[in-house]
Amino acid sequence: MEHERPAWAERLRTERESRGWGTFEMARQLRQAIGITSHPANKVKALARQIARHENGYVYPRDWVTAYAKVFDIPDTELRPPPKTNPPQTSDDGGHPSTSPQGGGPTNRRDALKLGAAVAVTPEVLHKVLPDTAAEAMEFTRRANTTAIGHGTFDHLESVIVALDRKYNVDPPADLFSTAHTYRHRVAELIEGPRTLKEARELYVCAAWLSEMLAWLAHCLGEPLAAEAWALDAFHHADQAGHDELCAWACDAMASVAIYHDQPARAVAAARRGVAKAPGRHPLAVHLRTQAARAHARLGDREACEEMFRQARDLHELLPARAPLRLALDTADLAPFAITGHATQAYLWLGDTEQGDFRRAKQHAQAAIDAQLALPARSRSPIREAMAHIDLAIAQAHLGEPEEAAALGQQALTTARRVDPVRRRAEDLHRVLNDRYRKLNAVRDLREAYRQNRPTK
Question: Which helix (H) or strand (E) holds 326?
Fold first, then answer.
């Protein structure tokens, strides 16, 4: 008799065939959906065999349901099997159902135990079948501990992730991206392979940290689409692992990418999503509120902007004296810079001279610079310093100090790392000065410095 495929298996085959894909292409699509972009022939072939078994209904693709749903753009609930029902028990020769679960064979005894949850099993029957469950328990234990994760793997991954975080402000973004990308793929392979449930969670956390770093590096390299995609990947892996703080870090990256690429509404949404995940008294919770504040300013919503800054300042007052670590880095300077540096940009974007926005922006920018200069050298961020100097220069340009603004902008460009966010702010400064003071020599010098310091991708 022909094997009857369940509805979920038929749906898998129908969705694939409607797209004109073979099983090999389906395998590549599934691997892509979980973040793997390289497709060795042996791995694709092995997964294609699994897909054929999925579509014939022999094996339910428990570990691949989310990937299938993502590829087909359908809710994963549509691929879930119906609740199981207990089939009638048959005799060993395939004849009529047995009238008694008390047969002496091991198959009958195991079947009786499986039916125990649905039908009454007498103490006598239970006493006979219990000895057979010892072997089953041993097999379940063996499977639960089956793993391909080598000794020291997590120690190695942690050292790599910490090193990448420390080098973010020092090494060229392209070099760091290559390293992080290589390790992210290796973690994806480990997730696919044999691992325990506990190891799976740790691997998801490692994947999330690496994706979060890739998001920031793609942002520095001027690739917003890749940056947002990696930030989303970081969020979802962290969420699967139950790591709320890491979810909030991913949202922080999403918000920054959106702000610098003129999508303030998306930035507000990302920041608020992060606020919901961030620990209550953590500098990151302050930082995310100021992210939302400057995004509201970009939208021209002064009231919402001021409210978010008020919440950030109130929370800042409640932070513990000892700031928590981000991996191995101190987060103590995160909140003070957010309240000053992000306020600078907010008031520049609100831009109402009568309400003193540019004057307030200048004051906040100087406070941000002073706060950075007061930090130990190892804790200072060249990117933040450059941004604060350029923002100060923009405020000066609006306040009628063009030569000071041009000189400050040129200094920031010649000393800052060549990253896209700095270039974009320098472009804003150049636009303001060029519109108002095009003929000044200092403005022409700034234009030349801007051209010579474009970041390389």
Answer: strand 325-326
Domain boundaries, the chain: 7-79, 106-144, 154-242
H helix or E strand, kind and range, residue 166: helix 153-167
CB 429 within 8 A of CB 446: yes
Residue 135 has pLDDT above 50, yes or no: yes
- Judge contact between 157 and 187, C-beta under 8 A: yes
Angstrom distance (rounded) from CA 181 to CA 170: 18
Separation in Å, CA 68 to CA 30, 201, 211, 410, 418: 7, 21, 21, 51, 40
Is the Cα torsion angle 10, 16, 21, 25 positive or negative in sign? negative
SS (H, E, C) 51-64: HHHHHCCCCCCHHH
Confidence band for 257, pLDDT divided at 50, 70 and 90: very high
Please tell me whether residue 329 adopts helix, strand or coil conformation.
strand
Q: How far apart are the first and last CA of the chain?
A: 61
Classify domain 7-79 at the CATH topology level.
434 Repressor (Amino-terminal Domain) (1.10.260)
Q: Please state the rounded mean pLDDT for residues 325-350.
A: 93
